[in-house]
Amino acid sequence: MRGGVSIRYGVLVVLAVMVLLPFAGIILAALHPPGAQLNGLSIPERWSWETLALAWERGNFTALMRSSVLISVCVVPLALVLATLAGYGLTVLKVWGHKTVTAGFVLGLTLPIELIVVALYFNLREVGLTNSYLGIILAEVALFMPFGVYWMRSHFSNIPEELVEAARIDGARDIVVLARVLLPISWPAITTLSVLYFMWSWNQFLLVLVMMQDPERRTAPGGLGLFVGQYSTDIPLLSAAGLIVITPIVVVYLIFQRSFVNGITQGAIKG
């Protein structure tokens, strides 16, 4: 028994090292002076914090981070509200044609962004929504909806029907059932979906690259792609830029770590 536990912990330690080692390499490389030649994982002789400041300035990350925050702050709540309402309508209210609509959302999970981005560009150009934040926000919300609806539908389907029926017997309307009965017990699922939405929106690269022609208004990952092309030989500067881009995701995950893990494990157990 002890041997099995030791093996499991050993495997977890190995996996943790495999995941954390690249991050440690990026952090250490970013702390070298700009232009330094690196050979693998090396500790800097002189900790150079100015590399981060230089990468921020040369990459124009003030404007890029502003765009990323603006898009993510708009996409996450809008997509979350729509996915929650859709999941509630398809699962609890069982609106007309809910099986067909659900099948359509499941089919949407199979569509990669690379398949539709060109057609999406021409459609949005016809209504003047290219090279604008609104076009990207609407496109990302639509892109994230299939998974969000499937996630919330799976969550609501695991809630006992007696709970909803008891609220209706007490005279609660449908919106009251959702707001006062279901949402308070759905925060783990909602928090998990929020974190996933934020990560996907923040990391969105191809959609922003195609829809936003103005380099000053692109997001941080898009700016990082241009930055790599300009400073491909300066490893410390590239590492610093990469560290700047991934830091918000790490911070958000650490803040919502407990709720995120609860939502994932809850879905795994109930599923």
Question: If you had to describe this structure to a student in words, what would you say it looks like?
Answer:
The chain is mostly helical and 271 residues long. It has a single domain, classed as MetI-like fold (Orthogonal Bundle), CATH 1.10.3720. Helix content is 77%, strand content 0%. The longest helix has 33 residues. It is globular. 29% of the residues are buried. The model has no long low-confidence stretch (mean pLDDT 87).
Note the main attributes of this structure.
271 residues, MetI-like fold, 77% helix
CATH topology: MetI-like fold
User: What multimeric state do the chains show?
Assistant: single chain
Global morphology? globular
Assigned CATH architecture:
Orthogonal Bundle
The helix content, as a percent range, equals over 70%
Number of domains: 1
Backbone CA Rg:
22 Å
User: Class, according to the CATH hierarchy?
Assistant: Mainly Alpha
N- to C-terminal separation? 29 Å
Which band does the percent of strand residues land in? under 5%
Low-confidence stretches: none
Q: Please, what is the CATH homologous superfamily?
A: MetI-like
Give the strand tally.
0
In short:
By secondary structure, this protein is mainly α.
Task: Please describe the topology of this protein.
Elements lengths: L1 H29 L19 H9 L2 H33 L4 H11 L4 H14 L6 H25 L3 H9 L4 H9 L4 H17 L2 H6 L8 H11 L4 H21 L1 H14 L1
Helix pairs in contact: 1-12, 2-12, 3-6, 3-9, 3-11, 4-6, 6-9, 7-8, 9-13, 11-12
